[in-house]
Amino acid sequence: MSGRSVPVSPAAVGVREGKAGVGVWPRRLLNAGGYIALALALALLASLLTVAATNMLGYNSYVIYSGSMQPAVKVGSLLVSRPVDVNDLRVGDVITYRSPGNHTMLTHRIVDMRQEDGEWVFQTKGDANPGPDPQEVILHGQVTKMVFDIPYLGYVVDFARSIQGVVLLLLVPAAGLMVIQAQKIWKARPSRGVQ
Asked: Where are the domains of the chain?
């Protein structure tokens, strides 16, 4: 062997110039992870903004937890409804009301209605239930009537309203931004090159 040295390019030894000792894949993984985390947080935020916007426009939104209205309204759907006068309701309308028996909120279809002593009496039924609800319901004034539903968005909204969702809405974007900023700092540091 002679005492002569042969220059070797950084690419020949697997090192990119200016990034000594750090491979391409870890940076790509960090980059992708930051953007994915940011995208997930933005999706959660968008779902909450959807709910807030519908409420500001006079609509109500509900997360559907039971399968009583399937297949028309799936479990986990976000139901958007608007208040209507009880006199404007018709058989076939899907309404959300407080159950007279246990005072829970129900979303069921009107299958029969009649006026009795000047009051509207409604018979409701979940589409998936074999028979009508056991108790008729008397409704006055405004009742919320379904306008549309967004399948599965209710799961996202429900999660975003939870403590874990709120933490995720705060921490994930912050972590994503930190990863992106760390990459920018890493790329901007002075080149050390291979000697």
From this structure: 17-53+156-188
